[in-house]
């Protein structure tokens, strides 16, 4: 039997009673395969901590054992500290093939004292170019922070510590491709990208600061629609309200049936994008000189309709 680290939390209820909630720290050995890096990726602490390392020879990476067709996944990550310029730490979902779908968190390293940049992107049928970038409102190297991707039939939402930072809506009715039919795995990696990652490639990786290490813990894939293929037979886990990999149907209903963000989430999204967004492809008219992507103009039309 796989051992688990137990965290015992005392919760005070509004009725004045105290109960003990026993939480099992996630065991990466059950959910994750380290797929590259020649020993630079390691699962330690009885499966509760995964460290990826990067040196001049190679980075490292892992992937989930399972595939998902829709889901909400969470990972706690502590990024490379100090002078991490040129390095990229990733947490993302991706399907296979030449016309793949992909939902990206990429964390672009920095010179000591400068802020990390969170780089997000959405690929549909092999086409990306939907980058939005943000600074963080905390030091992501000092301790672990939670990063989440919600992907359901209506929208994709990126979260940092529970705050939405980006939403990509399903606008298929307007001709915008949306990931809906290709199962994805979760991936994580640490690699060298000093040809573009920091100040457009002007700042190179300082290998004397290596090896660089990023740490991961508490991967949560309880709220997903499972997908597996055995001898040509595809098996899916029900993902409509009332059925999921999770034992909580109410939790399933909440994320799977969500068609948009509530008012408090919209307020949080506006706060993040106003104060911390540093690049938005929907504002880059120089790059898209022949016209902004459809989803960008659709967003503006929706705003004009509401006003």
From TrEMBL:
One Pfam family in the UniProt entry: Glyco_hydro_16
Top EC group: transferase
PROSITE patterns registered for this protein in UniProt: GH16_1, GH16_2
InterPro entries linked: Beta-glucanase-like, Beta-glucanase/XTH, ConA-like_dom_sf, GH16_AS, XET_C, XTH
GH16 domain location: 12-216
Subcellular location: Secreted, Cell wall; Secreted, Extracellular space, Apoplast
Signal peptide: 1-25
Listed Low complexity bias regions: 235-253
Polar residues bias locations: 254-265
Post-translational modification: Contains at least one intrachain disulfide bond essential for its enzymatic activity.
UniProt keyword Cell wall biogenesis/degradation present: yes
Keywords carried by this UniProt record: Apoplast, Cell wall, Cell wall biogenesis/degradation, Disulfide bond, Glycoprotein, Glycosidase, Hydrolase, Secreted, Signal, Transferase
Cross-referenced SUPFAM superfamilies: Concanavalin A-like lectins/glucanases (SSF49899)
Principal location class: secreted
Family: Belongs to the glycosyl hydrolase 16 family.
Known role: Catalyzes xyloglucan endohydrolysis (XEH) and/or endotransglycosylation (XET). Cleaves and religates xyloglucan polymers, an essential constituent of the primary cell wall, and thereby participates in cell wall construction of growing tissues.
Name of this protein: Xyloglucan endotransglucosylase/hydrolase
Species whose genome carries this gene: Camelina sativa (False flax)
């Amino acid at each position: 039997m796989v051992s688990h680290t137990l965290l015992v939390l005392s919760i005070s209820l509004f009725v004045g009673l105290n109960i003990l909630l026993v939480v099992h720290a996630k065991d990466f050995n059950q959910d994750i395969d380290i797929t590259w890096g020649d020993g630079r990726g390691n699962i330690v602490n009885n499966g509760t901590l995964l460290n990826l390392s990067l040196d001049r020879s190679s980075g490292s990476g892992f992937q989930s054992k399972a595939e998902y067709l829709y889901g909400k996944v969470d990972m706690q990550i502590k990024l490379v500290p100090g002078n991490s310029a040129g390095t990229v730490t990733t947490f993302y979902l991706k399907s296979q093939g030449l016309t793949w779908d992909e939902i990206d968190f990429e964390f672009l390293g920095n010179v000591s004292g400068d802020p990390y940049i969170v780089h997000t992107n959405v690929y549909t049928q092999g086409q990306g170019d939907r980058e939005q970038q943000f600074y963080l409102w905390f030091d992501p190297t000092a301790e672990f922070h939670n990063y989440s991707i919600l992907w359901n039939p209506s929208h994709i939402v990126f979260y940092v510590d529970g705050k939405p930072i980006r939403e990509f809506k399903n606008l298929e009715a307007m001709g915008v491709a949306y990931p809906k039919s290709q199962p994805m795995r979760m991936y994580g990696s640490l690699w060298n990208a000093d040809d573009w990652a920091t100040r457009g490639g002007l700042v190179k990786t300082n290998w004397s600061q290596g090896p660089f290490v990023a740490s991961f813990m508490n991967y949560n894939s309880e709220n997903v629609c499972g997908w597996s293929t055995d001898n040509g037979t595809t098996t899916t886990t029900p993902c409509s309200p009332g059925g999921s990999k999770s034992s909580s149907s109410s939790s399933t209903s909440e994320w799977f049936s969500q068609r948009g963000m509530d008012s408090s989430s919209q307020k949080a999204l506006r706060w993040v994008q106003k104060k911390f967004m540093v690049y938005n492809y929907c504002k880059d008219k120089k790059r898209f000189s022949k016209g902004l992507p459809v989803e960008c103009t659709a967003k503006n039309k929706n705003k004009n309709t509401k006003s």
